[in-house]
Amino acid sequence: MTLSELISFKVEIVNIFNNYEEIIYDLYQPIDKKLIEVAEAFYSDKSKLVLIKNNEMETIGHVCCFYNERKNQLEFGFFGQKDHKNDQVSTLLIEKIDDLRVKWGAKHIIGPINTPAAIYLYGFDRNDLKQKKYIERLTDNGYKERSRYRIFDMSILFLMASRNLKKPHDFIHIKSTNEYKGNDLKKDLYDISKAVISPISPDLVIPHELIDAILYVVKNFGYPECIQMTRDAETLELTGEAIFVPNIWPKHLVYKGKSDELRVVSGGWKKVKGKGMGYSKYHYTHFANICKKKGIKKLTVGPVNTKNIKAIKSLEKLGLPLEYEYIVLEK
Predict the structure, then answer these.
(1) What is the pTM of this model?
(2) Number of domains the chain contains
(3) Where is average pLDDT lowest: 82-96, 108-122, 132-146, 244-258?
(4) One domain for residues 260 and 291
(5) 244 - beta bridge partners?
(6) Do residues 4 and 38 lie in contact, with contact meaning Cβ atoms separated by under 8 Å?
(7) In a shared domain, residues 161 and 30
(8) What's the whole-number mean pLDDT along residues 112-128?
(9) Is 157 helix (H, G, I), strand (E, B) or coil?
């Protein structure tokens, strides 16, 4: 006899993309329908939303289960419940994750991955009391830590905004995404991200399937300048990029629906890799000036895998304070 048969809860396993509005607990920002549609484009039709409901048919717990066919693994996300002290609800959610893994024949379970993760992030916040409870319950059910990710406060850039750095003579700054037409931006974003980031920070390369999500959020909640590109002045070859994703939590959408907080999800320059920070200092100083004019109040960077020692040390060397640390589990 299963737990759901012993207690007065109703379990519904439904299509995520038709029932996304049921995902309401433990969110830093609400689910956006368009972003769920973006997620649908690169996940199997096996993906499901598990809902736990009480006798009044109120949703009191939920978890999304995505089947990644390429990796043959179940990726769960948006794990949340109304009352984090109710062990029965979280235990039931964990039971249903295991049931779907068996049903789909997945080799592993990994999570939380809150798809699209470039926007909603992944991992449990180890300093959040609710999410610490979830970590404990999953650990009790055979899960172990897979990885940790950190987000750093980058607001120190505002101190650089007043500097008048000399523009390096050998690159052209592409001012904003408005200079692109068609799908050229998507291709350039992926190509330059892979070229300049992959060798030093593979976890920060932006996958093809997430670029649509980033462009949608930038267009609707951010600014054209949130995506910054540079080219070599002579060859016109792309030499670098920086992508700032808006925080779409309602309290940050302060001016005509635009966000006052941005997070760097990717950034790097070919000619400064291992050879100093001249280009990036100019680039970020330029962007800090834009942010001040637009009323941006906070900048962060990440998530960065803690195993990426080189990236972590470089951020700490810049004096960036730690903002959050997230834990991803596996079974």
Answers:
(1) 0.81
(2) 2
(3) 244-258
(4) yes
(5) 264
(6) no
(7) no
(8) 85
(9) helix
